[in-house]
Design goal:
It is built from 25 helices and 14 strands. Strand 2, helix 10 and strand 3 form a beta-alpha-beta unit.
Length: about 550
Amino acid sequence: MNSENDPSHLPEPTALRGVDILNDPHLNKGTAFTPQEREKLGLRGLLPPRIMSVDKQLERVYENYGYKSSDLMKYIYLMGLLDRNETLFYMLLEQHLEEMMPIIYTPTVGLACRKYSRIFRRPRGICISLDDLGAVDKLLGNWPYHDIRIIVVTDGERILGLGDLGVNGMGIPVGKLSLYVAAAGIEPYQTLPVCLDVGTNNEELLADPLYLGLAIKRERGERYDQLVDEFIWAVHDRWPQCLIQFEDFGSTNAFRLLEKYRDRALVFNDDIQGTGAVSFAGLLGALRITGQSLIEQRIVFLGAGEAGTGIAKAIMTGLMEAGLNETAARQRFWFVDSKGLVTKDRYDQLAEHKKLFARDDQPIERLLEVVEHVRPTVLLGVSGQPGLFSEEVVKTMARLTERPIIFALSNPTSKAECTAEQAYTWTEGRAIFASGSPFDPVVHNGVTFHPGQGNNAYIFPGVGLGALVIRAKRVTDSMFHRAALTLAEAVPDDMLSRGSIFPSLEDLKAVSLEIAVSVAREAYRLGIATVPEPADLEQAIREYTWQPQYRPLI
């Protein structure tokens, strides 16, 4: 299977010379070019004469990284390295993944997106606007690499918990695809970030003379659908094996686009399916600590958008696997939105994705009153509103259950419903806590807790890798279910004893491989794989993956 990853379709190295090679991030080695390469490729004199080993290069770039005075400056530095020497960037990232993931992704990527139009340096990805209707395939043809296997696409409407950032949301696909490479070994030149610029309703951006996107109100009608449809099928025609990941679309479009294309194209929505899988895995990890069963849980959701309902559906699958029917499984959930408890008396006013979880219950407006009424074992926040898990709410949780499970999943860190320190302090260290963005360890009463990060990066790289290797026709919810179970099983006991319900990020690449294997096996079980099952599936997936190392150019 790895024969398809042969780099022979890359630009022929000997066809490029001198500064053209140095300006190509796929080929550039900087000061590591050998004497022979420098002579034959016209690089003598264009580089300082001393040849540096990879180790010395890594030492230099890591030292320079450490000089940066803020996380945003570190982000800009890393993106600059990615733009000039891709291989060195991924070698550095692989060595320091736990340290640098919060820089290239949440939470720093949120700030980078807000500042995107001001820190823009050079193109990275394809931006397709409403002005490009009828010419999408031509735009895709402008991309210089012609074996694209994974696209992450956003329309910028719901960037993390920051809302509508329009074309500034391009930082999200770039960050996600960096993790596909670092965590799953997808070849960098086989990835493509895409932003669909359909305008923005962010008044600050519309008034900003430096904003790089269309300065128009967000399109919600027929032209929006035409652009998305043209994009999906242009990708399919040009790269039939390409997986498309929808990212940070607003709730209405996120649900309907997933339903429209999931059975027709190789697509998934990470905010719905990926968030659901990682949260379900985290809940299973928490139950390993409490010793309770999944069926015993009563779960209150603060936030009823795509993340919340995606998580509920993922947990429902587990509940039904444990023996409940669908109706009984739904009764384990209580959703709270901006108007209070989601109940059937509001049915006609509810968005379609909320109706499934509307309860035949009395109206309750305040979260605290919902917690008192439900007596939940799990409180899960996906509201995008900081601080809503107040001291009173968390202390009530602690009064009503011995080991309250509190997931404050809104991103970035500034949007978390409560902090790790608050959760542990207000529960006297009894909370089992996880967040969407990272928090530092917390010491309470002499005990150090290591809060888990429910980051989708534990899920989507492995799902994508597994689907690609066996050329899946579709990506199914059951594949995400298998990914969640695999992730839950990958948490060692010593991590649980420290309060963390997810593996160390240092183990992310190994976990992604395990998930890829389980996802591929599920695809074979469903009959949606299009290549024969190899005798050693794990080895076949290992052989498919790319390792960051310089390749000879002569």
